[in-house]
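Proteins fold reproducibly. Take a tokenised chain:

. . .
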Amino acid sequence: MDLPHIYSNIHSSDAQPPRFSELFRGLTLQLGNETTLELKSILSRQHALLGRGTCVIQASGPEDWTNKYGSNLVAKISFPPAITKPEGEILQAIIDIAKKKKQLWVLNRLPDYIHHERVEWDHGNSGLQKRLVSLLQELSNIPYEERKLEILVLRELSPITNLVSTKTLAPAIRDIFKCYRWLYNEAKLMHRDVSTENIM
């Protein structure tokens, strides 16, 4: 990720730091498949350890992605525990189950994920996380849960809070419960973070 340009004009007398929601605007994020995304506004940010909370950023891709997926994309950047299965793999498993069971209605209610990757950002035994594991173990026998950087690119969705009429909200709520029941019964998955911000 190209970060040095965030405050490139900060030394001029009339320059102001960017608003937080615009912190990444104009920067680029190069994915592992060499696709480059242009970042825009931050849509949501998890209040967690500084620099390690999940962040969802509007983005646009190259012309071939725009033609195929549209121009409204988001990059979800998170730092899940290293032992967990990547979110993109979970989504793909759900898609495969729905196709195998010929329950294709589910596919229309899943987020359109375009790309996912998990980045090894702390290599070897000398990295920061390995040193933390060793230090915490030595000082107080406190376990440290190692994490990895995960990037998930999806089509941008609108939160359910945008629906304000009963005519549109009622069927959406019905479909949400139907999908969560299907995930639990058929895919053996339980979503553990159901909130108005996560229901699209």
